[in-house]
Design goal:
By secondary structure, this protein is an alpha+beta fold. The chain is built from 22 helices and nine strands. Helix 17 crosses helix 18.
Length: about 400
């Protein structure tokens, strides 16, 4: 079968070292597995390097610790330990077979059979192994072909794989978005549609993690369209208003060279409704930072148009912050649907990214110094002065601003 020995990541000293130690215990007892093999075949970047082994976790821990590596029992109940070699982490998992599944988690037992381990995985292109000689092992017989053809196909019966873990429904769409060819496997799509109710058993955090990864794909639109057609999108995001704005946003990003922003793409699925954003954020248990970004964009009513003057743009950036202004601007740009205006939008976006908002030249101490007693009146005067300063496009220096402050105090 094809050899990957010359893949750069396979030649890295920490990689060679960990395989040498594991296979020193028993020849060919450890192989690379999953994403690193798949992505190398696809010509995609390799980030995480996972290893499957016939050795049990206690043996892995013993021999790797003896070789000077640090070992952490990060998923010991499923046979996974994280081995750190020269500051590089590797997940090392003992070959497994499922003893019992309930759609959310599995009870496993260890095995030495590579085929058993492969056939409990989700998709054929994820069940590929590569030994330290660079030789690929394909227990399902179709993983290499699927990878080279960019097909996302469940191993065996799609419904059986999904019933083992209903999150595989979202993984089907996520992997299709990242590695597919814009055509969803018909059998997989039908199974996802038929069993979509099982997603109600999955924790909100896991659902949001998969959605966020899907939305980070360079071109997620066709996968999301498939989700909508299968009823899966409504199952997890019943508040979504449709995909038209998201599709326009993705097209705009590609046209203008903007990097994908998963949270901004998520915003595009909903109307500008604070109550909806709050409901979705709470149900999916978004982080406080993510909730804040959604809330800022939904609450703001500043008119964002391609015809904004530079002064109006600076005012909006100052009042909203660059992040919220940029989210609002890019979504408004996408909604306009007019490529002929791209130049105007780009000018506004560039200004927002390069302009550094100045600091108001006066403070509360200056208000107190002119005789305003401590209390709410200090804040009121500062707000009046700031509004005057903003209306002047932030040009007033400290002396001019102090003069204005005196006028508001009188």
């Amino acid at each position: 079968m094809s050899a990957l020995l010359h893949a750069p990541w396979m030649q890295a000293p920490p990689v060679r070292r960990i395989l040498s130690v594991l296979n020193g215990e028993r020849r060919d007892s450890a192989r690379f597995v999953g994403g690193c093999v798949r992505n190398t075949l696809l010509g995609e970047p390799v980030s995480d390097i996972d290893i499957a082994t016939q050795l049990t976790p206690d043996v892995v821990t013993q021999i790797m610790s003896g070789a000077g590596a640090r070992v952490h029992p990060t998923g010991i109940e499923h046979g996974t330990v994280t081995v750190v070699v020269d500051h590089h982490p590797f997940e090392v998992t003992t070959l497994r077979r499922d003893v019992q599944t309930d759609g959310r988690r599995a009870v496993v037992s260890f095995t030495e059979d590579w085929s058993e381990d492969a056939h409990r995985r989700d998709f054929r292109l994820n069940a590929l192994y590569c030994d330290e000689r660079g030789v690929i092992h394909d227990p399902t017989g179709s993983g290499v072909t699927d990878a080279r053809s960019r097909r996302i196909v469940f191993i065996g019966d799609p419904e059986a794989r999904i019933r083992e873990d209903y999150l595989r429904i979202l993984r089907f769409f996520r992997f299709s978005a990242w590695y597919g060819r814009r055509v969803l496997n018909a059998d997989g799509l039908a199974a996802c549609s038929a069993l979509r109710g099982g997603l109600d058993q999955i924790s909100p955090e896991r659902i949001w993690m998969e959605l966020r990864k899907l939305l980070a794909a360079p071109e997620p639109s066709f996968a999301l369209r498939g989700m909508a057609q299968a009823g899966v999108l409504h199952q997890v995001l019943p508040e979504a208003h449709g995909l038209e704005l998201l599709e326009r946003l993705v097209a705009l990003e590609r046209r203008a060279g903007l990097s994908p922003q998963p949270l901004r793409r998520f915003m595009s699925l909903f109307s500008k409704d604070r109550e909806v954003f709050d409901t979705v954020s709470a149900r999916l248990r978004l982080s406080n930072e993510e909730k804040g970004r959604l809330a800022s964009a939904s609450m703001d009513s500043t008119p964002i148009r391609s015809t904004m003057t530079p002064a109006a743009c600076r005012r909006a950036v100052f009042l909203l912050g660059e992040a919220t202004f940029t989210d609002r601007l890019v979504l408004a740009w996408a909604a306009s649907g007019d490529p002929s205006l791209d130049g105007a939008w780009v000018s506004l976006l560039t200004l927002a990214q390069k302009w550094k908002p100045p600091q108001l030249p006066v403070s509360g101490d200056d208000v107190l110094a002119v005789g305003v007693p401590a209390g709410p009146r200090v804040g009121e005067v500062l707000r009046q002065v700031e509004a005057w300063w903003i209306d002047g496009d932030f040009r007033a220096d400290r002396a001019s601003t102090l003069s204005a402050l005196m006028r508001f105090v009188r």
